[in-house]
């Protein structure tokens, strides 16, 4: 999925949420790794980003959005599990 489609899908999933919930953004900085690798960074950058992205995506919620940035990742939280289940979990009246 391209970035614009991912953002559109994310926007639809958080529509109507409390603004405080939607501003809990996580930044994962790979700058320290870049500094540590030094001159080798250009050769290993893509591999490190691929491995880190797979690691992050295995640990975030289904509705969360993980985006690559220049020096790391940004994770936008999607709706909590209980909110996605709420329409089906509501007691019949």
The computed structural class is: alpha+beta
Provide mean pLDDT, rounded: 79
Distance between the termini: 40 Å
Count the strands? Answer: 3
Largest sheet: 3 strands, antiparallel
Write out the strand line-up for the largest beta sheet, numbering strands in chain order.
1-3-2
Share of helical residues = 40-55%
Percentage of β-strand residues: 5-15%
Residue windows where pLDDT falls under 50 for at least 5 positions: 84-89
Shape: elongated
Question: Element order, helices and strands?
Answer: HHEHHEEH
Number of helices: 5
Radius of gyration: 17 Å
What does this structure look like?
- It is built from five helices and three strands.
- The chain is of the alpha+beta class and 93 residues long.
- The protein has a domain of 62 residues.
- The protein has a three-stranded antiparallel β-sheet with strand order 1-3-2, sandwiched between helices.
- Strand 2 and strand 3 form a beta hairpin.
- The chain starts with a helix and ends with a helix.
- The relative contact order is 0.18.
Which terms would index this structure?
single chain, 93 residues, alpha+beta, three-stranded antiparallel sheet, 3 strands, elongated
Which SSEs are present, and which pair or pack?
Elements: H1 3-13, H2 19-22, E1 26-29, H3 31-37, H4 41-57, E2 65-68, E3 72-76, H5 81-89
Antiparallel strand pairs: 1-3, 2-3
Describe the structure concisely for a colleague.
This protein has helices at 3-13, 19-22, 31-37, 41-57, 81-89, and strands at residues 26-29, 65-68, 72-76. It is an alpha+beta fold and 93 residues long. It has a domain at 23-84.
